[in-house]
């Protein structure tokens, strides 16, 4: 099963650390993939959920690209990643039941399971049945290590 930390969280939400580059690096060192929220503003890259918070260089993303699930937060971000093809695993979603990532994964909205072959996002919110999933993205990803 693919284990994806939601914004760097592993054992519950820590809002002040979410999407912080050092927090994400710590989570990757624990062996997890990480879903990150990426903004592109006038050609510069930022991490942050509701707004761009942490400026960064493309080099930071490039070095971690095999461990990141990039949630594009604005149109400029999705356009930028789309120009690169499938070098990165990125996607855009709002409240869609499911969206397809650039690498062909089904990214399912919380509460929409079971969907065969999908990534269950925050299954703990609705006690989703993840038996048909190939992965989980959670604030409590340590729980799914078994």
What would you say this structure looks like, in words?
The protein is α/β, with parallel strands linked by helices and 146 residues long. It has one domain (2-144). Helices cover 17% and strands 29% of the residues. It contains 3 helices and 10 strands. Strands 1, 2, 3, 4, 5, 6, 7, 8, 9 and 10 form a 10-stranded mixed sheet that branches. A hairpin with a 6-residue loop joins strand 3 and strand 4. It is globular, with a radius of gyration of 14 Å. It starts with a strand and ends in an 8-residue tail after the last strand. The relative contact order is 0.18. The model has no long low-confidence stretch (mean pLDDT 95).
Fold topology:
Blueprint: E1 2-6, H1 21-29, E2 33-41, E3 44-47, E4 54-56, H2 58-64, E5 68-72, H3 75-83, E6 90-91, E7 98-100, E8 106-108, E9 118-121, E10 135-138
Topology order in helix (H) and strand (E) letters: EHEEEHEHEEEEE
Helix content: 10-25%
Low-confidence stretches: none
Structural class, by secondary structure, is alpha/beta
* Largest sheet, strands/sense/barrel: 10 strands, mixed
- What sort of overall outline do the alpha carbons produce when their principal axes are compared? globular
Radius of gyration: 14 Å
Overall number of structural domains: 1
* E-strand count: 10
Question: Which range does the strand content fall in?
Answer: 25-35%
Mean pLDDT reading: 95
End-to-end Cα distance: 10 Å
Q: How many H/I helical runs?
A: 3
